[in-house]
Design a protein that fits this description.
By secondary structure, the chain is an alpha+beta fold. It contains 22 helices and 12 strands. Helix 2 runs antiparallel to helix 3, helix 5 runs antiparallel to helix 6 and helix 17 runs antiparallel to helix 18.
Length: 532
């Protein structure tokens, strides 16, 4: 897997100004204990955890900690730290039992560090050092996100055992809704009708009535093609599931919503030859058509998308879900368009199968050369890369995303676009269009992107990027809570969770709004389950 290397300057940017005396001794001791824990992880071959904690030592405690620097491969060069030639291990090899043992060890260490940070905070506050006191409270919450006393001191919001800012709590609540809706719609059936006695006049006119194909329709979509009927039905089903997820989670506004994708048709071919004929018949410009046939495998004209080579269930699912979320969000820049597709496909299927490697455009069409191959084995690898990108602050700044072109995007660019779009799903879906539209609104450089984004989103892009970075590089805090789908400290039992899923499936069938679970509902759950 390609790796990003973390320069010393990126770490220094995160480090607070260290104080002298008791505070510095406390921070040095914390760094020593964290380093010792990382050594244990490394010896057990849990390399990702060791690296994460070593980075935390350098970021928050001691940027010149020689033991942690050396462990990550840095060497002294005068006053600077530079990375040596030895690559840090990429693949974790720790056993499940070793991880469990180290997890218990971490829980004990984290609890101790949380107490020490809180104690230091109270001491500094008495000395009138409010800013430093708050920094220690934030560190205490990093090690114990459920500490109510710290939350009160920091005047934070609370939700199901988590304490954070208003935006963090909102991110957690949206993440819960995302997960709950996904779990329900993945079990949801929508009516699919076979179009055995119907023909598509456009296909007949272009390829002739002797060309063999079949079709299916669902409440909002139609799929035609010479691929298998089961694959067509699977595509229609997942298009409906993706649409419902988008409506529930992303909402609607003036430029985002179901009206942009409802009624869409897919025409899916096994091989390139009939698809090429179809493209020629649909295109107004012969030169554009030939260029697209050479460099693309998927083309769209208004509410029609046609492709070739997507013949398996897995490929068809990925293809339609990607198109639904791309049209629903109405993003147009290459990075954001590809990013939202990766985000929802990865979120549904734990992998993403298509990516653009070129973006030739013909008049009246949108085309992208899409390779049906996996860029990386699965989303876990993407998550690892996203954390790498987040640590390396200079890698693909958010204000460059609108200017990236598909034929020049690196793997790191793709990872940043995917991760940023997925974070926008959690944080505020309106940010998708706020960033995507900056170029159309006249931004011609990163500084202008910052300006246009803040005008639209009413929050600085740099602040959102900082939140995204903390979300990924401090996974034991907010991210840990976001990974829970049906509750915090008192999750639903499997039986009640199943009832909640069945309740929502019935509500979907009746056209009613999704009913999201909250722990505070538990006392009245029986009454709630009896609601129409």
């Amino acid at each position: 897997m390609p790796r990003l290397l973390l320069p010393a300057v990126a770490l220094c940017a995160l480090l607070p100004v260290l104080q002298s005396g008791a505070e510095k001794r406390m921070l040095d001791k914390s760094a020593e204990r964290l380093h010792k824990y990382s050594v244990s992880c490394f010896k057990a071959r849990w390399f990702s955890q060791a690296r994460r904690i070593w980075r935390e030592v350098l970021s928050h405690y001691d940027e010149n900690n020689e033991a942690s620097r050396s462990a990550l491969g840095y060497k002294r060069s005068g006053r600077l730290w530079v990375l040596g030639a030895t690559l840090y291990p990429d693949k974790d090899l720790a056993s499940a039992s070793a991880k469990r043992k180290l997890g218990k060890k971490w829980d004990k260490l984290a609890a101790e560090l949380a107490r020490e940070h809180k104690k230091m905070s109270l001491r500094l506050r008495k000395e009138g050092k409010g800013e430093r006191a708050d920094w220690h409270l934030d560190r205490a919450l990093r090690f114990d996100p459920s500490d109510t006393e710290v939350a009160e001191l920091r005047k934070l919001k609370s939700f199901e055992g988590f304490h954070g800012s208003k935006d963090e709590v909102g991110t957690l609540m949206r993440s819960r809704l995302m997960a709950q809706t996904r779990e329900v719609v993945k079990e949801m059936d929508f009516p699919i009708r076979d179009l055995d006695d119907e023909r598509n006049s456009t296909i007949d006119n272009i390829l002739g009535k002797s060309f063999g194909y079949q079709g299916v329709s669902s409440p909002n979509f139609t799929l035609w093609g010479d691929i298998g009927k089961d694959q067509l039905r699977e595509g229609a089903l997942w298009a409906e599931r993706a649409l419902y997820w988008c409506q529930t989670v992303l909402g609607t506004n003036r430029s985002m919503g179901p009206q942009r994708i409802k009624g869409h048709h897919w025409v899916l071919f096994k091989s390139k030859e009939p698809w090429a004929s179809y493209v020629r018949g649909m295109s107004n410009n012969p030169r554009d058509a030939e260029f697209s046939i050479q460099y693309a495998s998927s083309m769209s004209w208004g509410r029609v998308t046609s492709s070739h080579g997507r013949t398996s269930m897995e490929q068809v699912r990925d293809h339609v879900v990607r198109k639904v979320v791309q049209d629903y969000t109405a993003v147009r820049t290459n990075a954001m368009h590809e990013g939202v597709g990766h985000a929802l496909c990865g979120y549904f299927f734990n992998k993403t199968l298509e990516f653009m490697v070129a973006q030739p455009r013909g008049k009246g069409t949108s085309a992208g050369k899409r390779e049906i191959k996996i860029l990386m084995p699965d989303i876990e690898k993407w998550n690892e890369m996203a954390e790498e990108v987040a640590w390396e602050q200079g890698a693909t700044p958010a204000n460059r995303l609108p200017f990236l072109t598909a034929n020049k995007m690196t793997n790191e660019d793709r990872i940043k676009a995917w991760s940023f779009c997925l974070y926008f799903f959690r944080r505020n879906p309106g940010f998708l269009q706020a960033l995507d539209s900056t170029k159309a609104k006249g931004a011609h450089g990163p500084a202008h992107v910052d300006e246009k984004f803040e005008e639209a989103a009413h929050v600085p892009l740099g602040q959102v990027e900082k939140e995204w970075r903390e979300f990924l590089t401090e996974p034991d805090r907010l991210l840990r809570f976001c990974k829970k789908d049906w509750g915090g400290d008192t999750p639903l039992s499997p039986a009640w969770k199943k009832l909640m899923i069945e309740l929502n499936k019935e509500r979907i069938r009746k056209g009613q709004a999704f009913f999201g679970w909250r722990n505070e509902f538990s006392e009245n759950l029986r009454d709630l389950l009896e609601l129409d």
